Amino acid sequence: MFTRNTPSPVRDELAHVLGVIVKQTHVKYLGLPSTVGRPKREVFEGVKDRFWQKLNGWATKKRSQAGRVVLIKSVLQAIPSYVMKCFEILESNLKELEGMMAIFFWQGGGEAKIHWMACHKLCRSKDEGGLGFHRLKEINKAMLTKQAWRIVMQPNSFLHQFFQHIYFSKCKVFNAESSSSMSFTWQSILRTKDLVAAGLRWRMGDWRSVQIVGVPWLPRPLLFQVISKPKLLPESSLVDVLLDEYGWNEGLVREEFSQVDAECILSIPLPREHRCDKLIWHYGKQGRFGESRVFLSMLTAIDSHDFGRF
Description:
It is a single chain. By secondary structure, this protein is mainly α. It is 41% helix and 5% strand. It contains 13 helices and six strands. The strands form three sheets. The chain has a two-stranded antiparallel sheet. A hairpin with a 2-residue loop joins β4 and β5. α2 runs parallel beside α5 (91-107), α7 (136-153) crosses α13 and α11 (250-256) runs antiparallel to α12. The radius of gyration is 25 Å and the shape is flat. The model is unreliable at 299-310 (pLDDT under 50).
């Protein structure tokens, strides 16, 4: 599919060389809309239709409430997952889907019944009195955040190079400014930058590529940067200046930083083998990004970070 600005002779020539047929537009490709305009609500109506198809098929059979819980978790909540990996679905659409799940849970396709608990309470863990349903908005954000993580961590991937060529060829990934002219997919991914930055920090290596100030490298939740600025060292200094031949230079560390920062720095174990500094996801096992870990960081108030420093 060509843009409107592509002249017809160029379209015909490229189509002939590539051996493809020129189509004016694709309404859908792999089940997803190929173009998303301003009226976005109608774009995602297909997900709602798939919900109705499942619910209408289940309405004729009587199931226990426990059985309906299993169907909601294993079937209904999985239906929009593919769309959620590519787009940020409108909140109004997601509320409709959650409302449909609530009706199915309480009524099971039968006569109207009282909803004895609000949807957001059903989404709490069982330990907190809920049923462990996932909020679709959180799932959507988590999946888009994973896409953003891949773009950051895999610079040689096709996805990174594709978006880089269009949106951030002259800057780093999340320094790209958002605008209405950008694709809806990129806008959706770009909105997760604060969430990515909230769990991103450097893992100990040789410390030759990590600045002391303004960069997340301390292994403590929420705030990975030093709170106190060094007293004598330049702020542009790298972390390796805090090391001597035996490990951390404890005297220098305690002299330059507050007690809180100094204790945190000195608690970082030094690697036995040489390795390079590496960006990791603080909340994941072995520094790997996991969607379930995103939910944990969503529940806490995390200050926004400037992603450009990475």
